[in-house]
Amino acid sequence: EPEVTQTPSHQVTQMGQEVILRCVPISNHLYFYWYRQILGQKVEFLVSFYNNEISEKSEIFDDQFSVERPDGSNFTLKIRSTKLEDSAMYFCASGRGAGGAVADTQYFGPGTRLTVL
Amino acid sequence: AQKITQTQPGMFVQEKEAVTLDCTYDTSDPSYGLFWYKQPSSGEMIFLIYQGSYDQQNATEGRYSLNFQKARKSANLVISASQLGDSAMYFCAMREGGYGGATNKLIFGTGTLLAVQP
Question: Band of the pLDDT at B101, cuts 50, 70, 90?
Fold first, then answer.
């Protein structure tokens, strides 16, 4: 069964450094998402991406964050200058895109645990 | 106001028994979708079941069923015949239809940690 994959599984970085988190969505999916989960807290939406552009973003997704689909398979999240509070599990998700309908299930990857020191 | 409320931070259930995990939601959109995800200790998020606001019947997927009470705005997950492998965090989530088309984001609750005891 196809699944979303993410690399790396763990990333440790120094405050102020740039990090790039990578995701390979399910191949026939059209919508891509990033969420984050600070330890012990609920999952929070960051951004959605469709047709090579951001379709929606949350207030968390400020100028320090960017997303890109550099080729036909990868989807990346970049944090330009990491802060301590960026430490979290970052989940990539993808959806088939049933015309934007509420029923379109988002399938999540296994996550990247980011630790900012 | 919380859009998704899960009032049970933790639950215990005996193996082979059924358990209900509560979820209430708040939206003014007539069209919305409700999802349940399982998060084992390994951290991944696993999709379990979906219920649409216009669905006439409660959703079922194997041992999972959704007790959807629209008037009460509740979408409780029922796990029948619990297994040790069901021990995990369970999240309820909602996607709103919106008036100009569905929004993209899932709104999650705080989760319920289920422990299945042998």
Answer: low
